[in-house]
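dumping this here before i forget
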Amino acid sequence: MPPIDAASYKVGVKNEVVDALRQVFLSDYPDPEFANRVDISLEYPLEAIHYPRVMLSFNEGDIHIAGVGHRELTDDGTGHDQMIAHWRFDGSVTFAIYALTNLDRDLLSSAIVNIIAFHGATAGNSRFYTEIFNSEYIDMQLGMDKISASGDQVEDVPWDDPTRKQYTASYSVPIIGEFYALRDTGALVTIDDVEIYPYRDGQPLPTGSTDPRDIGVPWQSDSVDI
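structure:
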């Protein structure tokens, strides 16, 4: 894949989760009240037409290089080597729910917990995780074993109507991931195969193993597809 802009690390994580969640509430969603009706966005809802909404946010934690002074080389597509950096990150993803009724808030809360905790419960849940795991430029994993809830809230709607209230809740899960970026520009890149080199000068290229525990390991003299 060609490199993309460096800003796509943070933007990319958010967009991947938004796109994944949109794969849940399609026409085959079990509750017809939410099928093709839930608005998924990175933005705060400002009009009644935007409800019910799930607003996604990515809260960054540590961003660090994969090792001490760690750098890797890749082919730039013209037969020349270029240096890339291997970065890892952690943080949390928050699903903030906004609804105009208490019932919609509670049902949508249950749906979010169901998506996180039971990834194979529905076709939409499976599509959610398939989208997350198949991200092209950012390898990421959502934590599915612990969900942090903020509690329910009732607030004024963001427009001038004293007779309406919005019902909110939010759930957060940890996220870890990694990405590769060009050292000189920071543009994100993908890794299609890994070159295998000897550990020391003079050693031959590794071609395989006679150890029966290594049966099935894809040894090659030049590269290993990943």
